[in-house]
Design a protein that fits this description.
The complex is a heterodimer of chains A (227) and B (140).
Chain A lengths: L1 H19 L7 H24 L5 H29 L6 H26 L3 H30 L5 H26 L4 H25 L8 H8 L1
Helix pairs in contact in A: 1-2, 1-7, 2-3, 3-4, 3-5, 4-5, 5-6, 6-7
Chain B lengths: L1 H33 L5 H7 L10 H11 L7 H21 L4 H40 L1
Classes of the chains: A mainly alpha (227), B mainly alpha (140).
Chain lengths: 227, 140
């Protein structure tokens, strides 16, 4: 409960911080994702109250379907970060095309895997798509971090946003994979999802609230950090 | 079988990535604090002069941080650095005998964690002073 409140409040805080910094246009996809995430948190709580308990099938269905939607929104937020890092190269159109292609490819791959081995295709598809998108997101964040280091991108705020994403994606992808490998551990892993869910809004709230937009890391320091 | 294999691959790769991203994130937090000078008062209390902290200073500075009220909302970042300190210390303890370079790298990282904590202490002290001054001003 405490984790849930903390997560929802920090999601709302991120949106407020971005708005107060006047960066709503610049970070449109990030703030949209956080807003959607806060909305989903409140809806999940209503479902939880209405159907009683995190182990109820209704809650589990709602959780994983809504998570698939959130993952897609986060995927576009990552792509928008690519646009920020590569903004001087003016390759936004190609990025959008590549993003749609990658999303469609991941969806097709998830469906192909699920259709071989599952009776409840839609439910398993939502679960598999989330797991694979988290993993694709992780790979994209790796590429993004590589681009930041290569292009000597020194904006501290952007660096911390991207690194937080890397932590969040890898933690979530690992938890999903663990749940997939050992469904019997669900009673333990279900606590990990909301706990890791707090990581991203908390670290982003810190980056937008405490780190000035014009703060820079010295290029030498950036290389030291990357090692 | 395919689903299980995919899950194993994803689990292993994700755990490795988690460790790596966490390390880089913590180093980016530390890097932002390294350039900040310490006030003479904090230098005297902690025994750390700017840029010259030692790995053994970290637990002592964390104890001092616990005594200081938190007005600067840096708890999550401090928790991350404490976990990083513990991980690096474990790496030094386990890998240093096999890989000699790890020892010197770990010593530098642990010292930088101590400096990060000292900078956080400095912020907390100045935030507490500001809050106290505002309170006294209001009560007049």
């Amino acid at each position: 409960m405490a984790i849930w409140i903390l997560g929802t409040l920090s999601e709302a805080l991120v949106v407020v911080c971005i708005y107060r910094r006047g960066a709503l246009r610049r970070y449109f996809f990030l703030s949209s994702y956080m807003f959607l995430s806060a909305l989903v948190s409140v809806s999940r709580f209503r479902v939880l109250l209405h159907y009683g308990g995190v182990t109820s099938p209704e809650y589990r269905y709602f959780y994983f379907y809504s998570d698939a939607v959130l993952t897609i929104a986060l995927f576009f937020a990552v792509i928008s970060l690519f646009s920020l890092v590569f903004e001087e190269m003016r390759i936004e159109r190609y990025l959008r095309f590549a993003a749609v292609l990658l999303l469609a490819g991941t969806a097709w791959f998830s469906y192909a895997i699920v259709s071989q081995s599952s009776a409840r295709i839609m439910t398993h598809f939502a679960f598999e798509l989330s797991q694979n998108l988290y993993f694709v997101g992780l790979a994209l964040t790796y590429v993004l971090w590589g681009a930041i280091v290569k292009l000597r991108e020194t904006r501290t705020q952007l660096i911390q946003i991207v690194l937080s994403l890397g932590i969040y994606f890898s933690a979530y992808a690992a938890t999903y994979a663990l749940s997939n490998l050992a469904p019997g551990l669900y009673s333990y892993t279900r606590f990990l999802f909301p706990a890791f869910g707090c990581l991203l809004p908390l670290t982003w709230a810190y980056a937008f609230w405490r780190v000035p937009e014009n703060a820079r890391l010295a290029p030498a320091r950036l290389l030291e950090v990357a090692q | 079988m395919t689903v299980a294999l995919m899950a194993v691959v994803i689990l292993a790769a994700s755990l490795a990535a988690l460790l790596q991203f966490f390390g880089i994130y913590c180093r980016s937090l530390i890097a932002a604090s390294v350039a900040q000078p310490l006030s003479p008062e904090i230098q005297e209390v902690t025994g750390i002069t700017s840029g010259a902290a030692g790995p053994e200073d970290f637990p002592r500075v964390v104890q001092l941080l616990r005594l200081c009220p938190d007005f600067s909302n840096d708890r999550q970042q401090l928790s991350a650095i404490r976990l990083y300190f513990w991980l690096v210390k474990s790496a030094r303890w386990t890998l240093a005998s096999l890989l000699p370079d790890v020892r010197s790298w770990a010593e530098t990282q642990l010292a930088q964690c101590a400096y990060f904590a000292a900078v956080a202490l400095d912020h907390r002290v100045s935030s507490s002073r500001t809050a106290l001054a505002a309170q006294m001003h209001d009560s007049r």
